[in-house]
Design brief:
CATH superfamily of the largest domain: Winged helix-like DNA-binding domain superfamily/Winged helix DNA-binding domain
Structural class: mainly alpha
Distance between the termini: 68 Å
Number of strands: 0
């Protein structure tokens, strides 16, 4: 089990008190993090960071268990968001770059074209629909977070997501049928725009 980091200049009594809180809270917090954040890659690192923050502020903390739980949960959420963003950007980069041995220049151009088509389709979504889609797919926000951020219900977020995915699917199908041209999404329904 990792040991807590001692603040410089702390007394022996301070260190003993910190060690006691560490020994008491570490197992409880590990159980909570493991249950609540199943996909958390390294709960030990999150807890270590929470205890470092606690050690830095321990003279100001009134309720150490509550403080540690709150900080650990926030750090876990941040770690999961970062991991989600990293995975999303890696998959986006893979779409653009792919395996150099397998991705011919033609396939590379087609992948870039597909990304441009998706971006164009999303740009034509109705404002709320597009905003909800971007927040969910590109910022990694949950439906509840989006609802709070936009001041709308989670049901409205769900409907916007369904509409966004339906419009994107139709727009991509239209683009495929048209050979990559004519991608269009109106504020109502998806439609084919006439190209000059």
């Amino acid at each position: 089990m990792a040991q807590p980091i001692d603040e410089r200049g702390g007394t022996r009594a301070d260190q003993l008190a910190l060690d006691a809180i560490f020994e008491e809270q570490w197992p409880r917090l590990m159980r909570l993090l493991s249950r609540r954040f199943v996909r958390l890659p390294s709960p030990e690192d999150v807890l270590q960071e929470a205890f470092v923050k606690f050690a830095q502020l321990r003279g100001q903390v009134q309720d150490p268990p509550a403080f540690l739980t709150h900080v650990a949960f926030n750090l876990a959420r941040n770690a999961l968001r970062s991991e989600h963003r990293r995975a999303r950007y890696e998959s986006y980069a893979d779409l653009l770059d792919g395996d150099a041995d397998l991705l011919t220049p033609e396939r590379h151009a087609l992948a870039r074209d597909e990304v441009r088509q998706i971006e164009a389709a999303v740009a034509e979504f109705p404002p709320v629909c597009g905003q909800v889609f971007r927040m969910h797919r590109f910022e990694g926000m949950t439906q509840t977070q989006i609802a709070r951020h936009l001041g709308i219900s989670t049901t409205a977020v769900e409907k916007s997501m369904r509409r966004a995915f339906a419009r994107l699917a139709v727009a991509m199908a239209v683009a495929d049928d048209a050979g990559g041209s004519g991608l269009g999404v109106s504020s109502g329904r998806c439609h084919i725009r006439e190209q000059d």
